[in-house]
């Protein structure tokens, strides 16, 4: 077997890269270890920066996004019994859109298959060679080798790609809390996301559709989800979202529960020879800033441009600059996500002094046009290089 670009991982990063390369006449094969049904129903975040939605629209996979995505022009910071709106569009001219990652995957899979793309599910990569580039994988009881010009590692934090980068340097931070997330069949209680800071911990009110709510509670990293009955979850959410004006939280049947640890992680460099890391294979952000999916999209846009230049002109300038270009954006997003996380969560080890500092900072962000603008600029998304 041979192709120009072997893509390890059939999530949004790998599928979008394959689609972008196809539009430039570059062949690729996507190798995904899970089956199609699992990939298309894997629940992940879905807050899209305008840069992400622009790319999906411009490349012909935005039809359902435009029909079903929920465009937001602001968000709310809630603390001290009151809400404070950050008008994203007024401050930046940009919007964000709620559209679940699983829906993006469905759209991209359908488009790649309709275009004759080679997307192989249940194809487990067991080895790769970054110098004489090839990928070895198992599929249908057979072991095969895919020779290629370049390899894109889009296989996530636990994939095989990052360990194949020798002398990789990693930077990470573990947070002393996690998120208990729920999906509920109930109309959202808000039209814009609510980020709440409360003495009992952080809470987030998001949404998946006009009929489905997505909500989160700060819990300890070793929390036993079995101890959280539906009634306890709704009571705790109501407490943390409570306002002095009597705002009410809509309750309904909970259809899913999960606990997500909070981590910041960056690997450097994002390239070794002809292997390039993209998305979670190279970096992880805490979900507070809604940057994970958007960073993956920006990575593959940069990589697709670099590969297009290489095949069109023979120049390797953009390929040689790939890691540095992506890491500049990654570190900005890492800092913003860290800032949002520490601004809004309750650190169980924080002193009274530190908690007063946090409240002072929240007051400043809520009252300062400059501080709101900085938050809005980073949240809505910086330009993709």
TrEMBL record:
InterPro entries: FAD-bd, FAD/NAD-bd_sf, RIFMO-like. One of its GO terms (molecular function) is oxidoreductase activity, acting on paired donors, with incorporation or reduction of molecular oxygen, NAD(P)H as one donor, and incorporation of one atom of oxygen. Keywords: FAD, Flavoprotein, Monooxygenase, Oxidoreductase. The keyword Flavoprotein applies. Residues 2-337 form the FAD-binding domain. Pfam families: FAD_binding_3. This is 4-hydroxybenzoate 3-monooxygenase. It comes from Actinomadura bangladeshensis.
């Amino acid at each position: 077997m041979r192709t120009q670009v072997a893509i390890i991982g059939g999530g949004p990063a790998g599928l979008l890269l394959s689609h972008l390369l196809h539009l430039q006449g570059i062949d690729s094969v996507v190798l995904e270890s899970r089956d199609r049904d699992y990939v298309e129903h894997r629940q992940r975040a879905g807050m899209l920066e305008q840069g992400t939605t622009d790319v999906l629209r411009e490349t012909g996979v935005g039809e359902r996004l435009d029909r079903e995505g929920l465009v937001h022009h602001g968000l709310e910071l809630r603390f001290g019994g009151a809400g404070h709106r950050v008008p994203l569009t007024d401050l930046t001219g940009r919007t964000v859109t709620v559209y679940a990652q699983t829906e993006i995957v469905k759209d991209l899979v359908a488009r790649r298959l309709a275009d004759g793309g080679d997307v192989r599910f249940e194809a487990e990569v067991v080895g790769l060679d970054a110098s004489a580039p090839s990928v070895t994988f198992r599929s249908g009881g057979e072991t095969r080798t895919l020779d290629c010009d370049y390899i894109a590692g889009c296989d996530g934090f636990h994939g095989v790609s990052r360990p194949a980068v020798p002398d990789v340097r990693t930077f990470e931070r573990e947070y002393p809390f996690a998120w208990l997330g729920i999906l509920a069949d109930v109309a959202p209680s808000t039209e814009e996301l609510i980020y709440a800071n409360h003495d009992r911990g952080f809470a987030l009110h998001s949404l998946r559709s006009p009929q489905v709510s997505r909500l989160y509670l700060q819990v300890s990293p070793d929390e036993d989800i079995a101890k959280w009955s539906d009634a306890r979850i709704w009571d705790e959410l109501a407490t943390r979202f409570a306002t002095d004006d009597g705002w009410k939280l809509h309750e309904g049947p909970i259809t899913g529960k999960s606990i997500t640890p909070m981590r910041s992680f960056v690997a450097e460099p994002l390239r070794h020879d002809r292997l390039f890391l993209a998305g979670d294979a190279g970096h992880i952000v805490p979900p507070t800033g809604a940057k994970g999916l958007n960073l993956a999209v920006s990575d593959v846009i940069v990589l697709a441009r670099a590969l297009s230049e290489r095949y069109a002109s023979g120049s390797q300038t953009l390929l040689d600059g790939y890691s540095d270009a992506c890491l500049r954006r990654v570190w900005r997003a890492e800092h913003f996500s860290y800032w949002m996380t520490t601004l809004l969560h309750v650190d169980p080890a924080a002193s009274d002094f530190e908690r007063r500092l946090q409240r002072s900072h929240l007051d400043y962000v809520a009252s300062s046009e400059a501080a709101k603008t900085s938050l809005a600029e980073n949240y809505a998304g910086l330009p993709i290089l």
